[in-house]
């Protein structure tokens, strides 16, 4: 049983965490390069937010939403 847990440890430490070790080493050289993936995710989230707001404005301008307080059952 001990060999199984040591094999799992070896898999994670020696193989699966190698990208994290590379990022840790890269962070000492360049903070921006080490965080490029974070910046990419924030950019994708910002673009999605802007698209969502434009769609909401479009529906609002077309008066497609029923704004009557009784239009939704949870508002009763």
From TrEMBL:
Transmembrane segment boundaries: 36-53
UniProt keywords, alphabetically: Membrane, Transmembrane, Transmembrane helix
InterPro entries on file: DUF6341 (IPR045922)
The protein's name: Uracil phosphoribosyltransferase
Species classification: Bacteria, Pseudomonadati, Bacteroidota, Flavobacteriia, Flavobacteriales
